Each structure stands twice: as structure tokens, then as C-alpha cells.
Amino acid sequence: MAAAVKRRLIFAAAAFPLLLGACGTDVTPAPTPAVSVTNVSEITAGATYNDTDVMFLQMLIDNQEQGQQMARIAAERATRPEIVALAEAVQVTQADELKLMKSWLDEWNRPTVLDKRVSLHADHGGMPSTGDEEIASLKTIKKAQFETAFLNLFLAHQHNAVEFAQLELDKGTNTLSKSFAERVKQSRTDQVQQMLKLLAG
């Protein structure tokens, strides 16, 4: 195995747990990892990829940028500590994931922004993206109704990420992108289960 490939896999093994550790049901801060989060952009994806790999990253970037907006609102407006902790963990984790995905698309000389968000999501097997007006409504909804509205919206939003990840697992070819998709699928599924419990609580 070439030295460059070894370095890529070592970075990936160290960084992926860090990137996704805050996305599950446990929002307790993890121990400091051996590799700093500033190294995520150094994880190179390699030259082998197909259109599904590109579309997966583009759709997930769009999904996570919306998720960041919702998480920021929740961190400010939620009352229950569990929801605030979830929102804060999402902000940190997804910021690192965004750096990783954008660096891979840059490496492939592919755009990081979707031109037609809703149609591209639907055309490539994903559910329609969360509407900007739905996100905006979280800022003005009554405080007493906020947590239920946020959890319902964010639950569906994270389910979309699971759908994108499954598409990548089924049709992608890039090894690291597929590994990343598996971790995204697992972590977002855990989040969905966490939010269902919070809704029932």
C-alpha cells in the first residue's frame, strides 16, 4: 500500500469517530481525540468516485447547512437541557463534517452547492429538503410550542440524511465516502430515536 493511501486511511480512522461522535443519543463530550478537528480537511478521498458520490456529498452539505440553522435556533430557544445539548452537539459535529465533505468535492473539482435543491433531492432518491419557510417559522413560533415543532421538523430532516446515506451505500463507489455514509446513517438513525423519545417525554 502506498504511503499516501496509508496516511489517508489513518486520518480517516481517527477522524470519523470524532466527526460523528456527537450525533448519536449520547451527548456527553467525548475524550480528546489523537487527531485535531483541524485535520479533517487533510483526509483526502482519492481519485475514484462516481456521480452518486458527488450527489451524496452535495445533498448532505445542503442538508447540514439547513441543520445548522435549526440547531442554532434550538440552542437559543429550547428549554429542556437535553434538547439544548443535542442542538449544540449537532452544531459542532456537522461543522466538522461540512469541512470534510467540501474538501472532498474541492479535491474532485466539483461544486459544493446544489443548483436546484428540491428537484435534485427527489430525482436522486432523497426526500424533498426542508423548506426555508419551515426553518424560519421556528424563530417566531410561540415558546410553548417550540420544542415540539423543532423536534418534528428536525426528526424529518435527519431522516432525509439517512435516505441520502443509503443512496450512497447502494450506488456510490468511493471507499471513504461510503464509509462516511455508513456512519452518517448510523448516527442520524440514533438521533431520530433520541428525538422520538424526547417527543414522548
Structure commentary:
The chain has 201 residues and is mainly α. It has seven helices and no strands. α1 runs parallel beside α7 (175-200), α2 (51-77) packs antiparallel against α3 and α6 runs antiparallel to α7. Residues 1-15, 17-38 and 118-122 have low confidence and may be disordered. It has helices spanning 3-20, 51-77, 81-107, 117-123, 132-137, 143-171, 175-200. 70% of the residues lie in helices and 0% in strands. The chain is elongated and about 50 Å long.
Key structural traits:
mainly alpha; 7 helices; 0% strand; 70% helix; 201 residues; elongated
What profile does the largest beta sheet have? Answer: none
- Look at the structure and give the mean pLDDT: 81
Percent of residues in beta strands? under 5%
Model regions low in confidence, pLDDT < 50 over at least 5 residues: 1-15, 17-38, 118-122
- Give the overall shape, derived from the CA principal axes: elongated
Total number of strands: 0
The assigned structural class equals: mainly alpha
Rg result: 17 Å
Would you spell out the secondary-structure blueprint of this structure?
Layout: H1 3-20, H2 51-77, H3 81-107, H4 117-123, H5 132-137, H6 143-171, H7 175-200
Helix pairs in contact: 1-7, 2-3, 2-6, 6-7
Compact description:
The chain has 201 residues and is mainly α. It has helices at 3-20, 51-77, 81-107, 117-123, 132-137, 143-171, 175-200.
